[in-house]
């Protein structure tokens, strides 16, 4: 409640994407009103019914039959997303204690708190597929499920908080807006809520960079340095190039995924170029230029070998991020045990009173 | 202390240092829900700190705003009670600190809401609702930990024993202040007595009552907290953020 009191510059980004989220929300409502055909007939092929619902742009709901691979894909993707929110708290949380004004401290604290909320919300969406949050957390801590590689990079200056908001949250929104139309209802609904808050975060990040880029020479240098370090890792957030992407084709058919990695990456680049100009910051790509024929910007691809190294565990902060999460989990064990013991005692007392 | 400036400053510093300490828990809490709850309380305290420090700056009339007061004073100029600057310790210590602080802040802000100074009254009216939630939250954890497992009981009693001596400073008499802290002691004692009893914990009998925070003589811990909080702001004099 204290985190929202900053003014938004008139040229702040995010309007177009937010419009898409709202359109997806309207579509979701319309689909709900149309209603689905009552359910499969007793002798009907369940797979055919599933395909019909997906093709009709209706939503699959938790109690519906679904192919095992669809369920597994969704669990993997939603869990990975939830883990990313929880691990993603660390790089930005790193600057809460040193935020340079009380207003910025409040905004950042509220933002990191939002990420925890997104994590919980997404774990709940995954739980509708028949897996518990405890199991998912265990998979994360054991390194058997991934989170977004971007959070394995360090936040070295205050401007990194701005760059994460502008670029990382920006890339996340470009990735996630199509998920608002995902065929699985609980995930689509979660994404609508998450995207709305993320677009707000992106504007906050943009505003931090805008202030720095129009500040002292040292602040300007800080902002440029952050954009220089975060640009390519942000491009890599869209995943490997389409030819190398292992999960894409099936996910597209199931309408879990709507656009290819490269299409989304292009959309992100095109969105950022103009915003960078307004910010007065340089995108660190000498080959970035408008291609009239494609009606899009040509740009340098991120280093996909580096992406693979980071995914496989050898990024700058992979070990720290997981060690931090494990430590919080194990150091909190006695507290969770106490809460469970206390709740059990209270329940026992209530039973005695009732008896 | 004398006058509304010192009073607003002391309360604002209590809230600011509390927020800084609680925010240290972000990404470290024992449960994800608790991460969110602690951030909520930190945000409330930070919000109150901003209102109080802004008002203190206006009362002083020397052109200092909330950030000048937060970032450009040294530890000897801070007026917070020692209780809030103590390190977080384990979760039991943090909950002991939060519970005792909230049991003081709730009657304080409630009394402030009825005081003659309109600005302070408005701040008190807003903050007392938040304090009621902080007190609920702290009391619930004191009970859960005190009456949970053997391990949690041991830790919670140790936390209460360690933190308790620092509560006395909160109630040092100051008849000239908008609310005399000494008048808040009965409400505090009542709250603490009933919660500790329900939590199967005992109130320490120690006569030791460390103090000095309100006069700017702090523990060794505050300067480190401020060094971290202020480092970036001070590295860029005059910059806007």
Automatic annotation (TrEMBL), chain A:
Which GO MF terms does the UniProt record name?
phenylacetyl-CoA 1,2-epoxidase activity
Biological process annotations from GO: phenylacetate catabolic process
| GO cellular component annotations of the record | cytosol
Q: What SUPFAM superfamilies does the record point to?
A: Ferritin-like
Pfam annotation, one family: PaaA_PaaC
| InterPro entries listed in its UniProt record | Aromatic_CoA_ox/epox, Ferritin-like, Ferritin-like_SF, PaaA, PaaA_PaaC
Q: Which domain of life is it from?
A: Bacteria
- This chain belongs to the protein called 1,2-phenylacetyl-CoA epoxidase subunit A
Species assigned in the record: Micromonospora arborensis
Automatic annotation (TrEMBL), chain B:
This protein's source sits in the domain of life called: Bacteria
Q: State the InterPro entries in the record.
A: Aromatic_CoA_ox/epox, Ferritin-like, Ferritin-like_SF, PaaA_PaaC, PaaC
Coiled-coil intervals: none
By its UniProt entry, which Gene3D superfamilies does this protein fall under?
1.20.1260.10
- What GO biological process terms are annotated to this protein in UniProt? phenylacetate catabolic process
Q: Would you tell me the Gene Ontology cellular component terms?
A: cytosol
Query: What is this protein's name?
Result: Phenylacetate-CoA oxygenase subunit PaaI
Organism expressing this protein natively: Micromonospora arborensis
């Amino acid at each position: 409640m204290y985190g929202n009191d900053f003014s938004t510059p008139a040229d702040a980004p995010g309007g177009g994407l937010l419009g898409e989220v709202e359109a997806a929300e309207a579509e979701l409502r319309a689909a709900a009103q149309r209603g689905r055909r009552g359910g499969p007939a007793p002798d009907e092929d369940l797979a055919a019914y599933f395909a019909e619902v997906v093709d009709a742009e209706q939503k699959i709901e938790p109690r519906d039959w679904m192919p095992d691979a669809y369920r597994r894909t969704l669990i993997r993707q939603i869990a990975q997303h939830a883990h990313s929110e929880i691990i993603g708290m660390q790089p930005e949380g790193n600057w809460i204690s040193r935020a340079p004004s009380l207003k910025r401290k409040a905004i950042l604290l509220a933002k990191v708190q939002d990420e925890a909320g997104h994590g919980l919300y997404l774990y709940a969406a995954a739980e509708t597929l028949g897996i518990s949050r405890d199991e998912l957390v265990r998979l994360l801590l054991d390194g058997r499920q991934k989170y977004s590689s971007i959070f394995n990079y360090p936040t070295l200056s205050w401007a990194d908080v701005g760059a994460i908001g502008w670029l990382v949250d920006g890339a996340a929104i470009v990735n996630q807006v199509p998920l608002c139309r995902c065929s699985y209802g609980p995930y689509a609904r979660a994404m609508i809520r998450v995207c709305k808050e993320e677009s707000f975060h992106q504007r906050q990040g943009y505003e931090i960079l805008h202030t720095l880029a129009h500040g002292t020479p040292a602040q300007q240098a800080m902002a440029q340095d952050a954009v220089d370090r975060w640009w390519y890792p942000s491009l890599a957030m869209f995943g490997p190039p389409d030819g190398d992407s292992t999960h894409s084709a099936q996910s597209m058919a199931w309408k879990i995924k709507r656009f290819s990695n490269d299409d989304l990456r292009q959309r992100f680049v095109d969105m950022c170029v103009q915003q960078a100009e307004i910010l007065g910051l340089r995108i660190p790509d000498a080959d970035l230029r408008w291609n009239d024929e494609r009606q899009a910007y040509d740009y340098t691809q991120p280093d996909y070998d580096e992406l693979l190294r980071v995914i496989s565990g050898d990024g700058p902060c992979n070990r720290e991020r997981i060690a931090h999460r494990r430590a919080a989990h194990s150091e909190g064990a006695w507290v969770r045990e106490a809460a469970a013991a206390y709740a059990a005692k209270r329940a026992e007392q209530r039973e005695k009173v009732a008896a | 202390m004398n006058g509304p400036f010192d009073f607003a400053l002391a309360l604002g510093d209590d809230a600011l240092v509390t927020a800084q300490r609680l925010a240290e828990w972000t990404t470290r809490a024992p449960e994800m829900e608790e991460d969110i709850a602690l951030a909520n309380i930190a945000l409330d305290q930070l919000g109150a700190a901003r209102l109080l420090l802004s008002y203190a700056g206006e009362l002083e009339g020397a052109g200092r705003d909330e950030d000048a007061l937060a970032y450009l004073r040294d530890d000897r100029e801070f007026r917070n009670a020692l209780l809030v600057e103590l390190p977080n310790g384990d979760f039991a210590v943090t909950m002991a600190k939060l519970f005792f602080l909230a049991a003081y802040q709730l009657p304080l802000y409630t009394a402030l809401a009825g005081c003659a100074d309109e600005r302070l009254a408005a701040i008190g009216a807003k903050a007392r609702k938040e304090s009621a939630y902080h007190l609920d939250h702290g009391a619930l954890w004191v009970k859960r930990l005190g009456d949970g497992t053997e391990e949690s009981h041991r830790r919670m009693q140790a936390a209460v024993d360690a933190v308790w001596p620092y509560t006395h400073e909160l109630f040092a008499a100051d008849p000239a202040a908008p609310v005399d802290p000494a008048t808040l002691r009965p409400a505090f004692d009542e709250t603490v007595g009933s919660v500790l009893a329900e939590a199967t914990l005992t109130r320490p009998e120690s006569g030791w009552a460390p103090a000095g925070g309100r006069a700017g003589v702090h523990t060794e811990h505050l300067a480190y907290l401020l060094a971290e909080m202020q480092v970036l702001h001070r590295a860029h004099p005059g910059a806007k953020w």
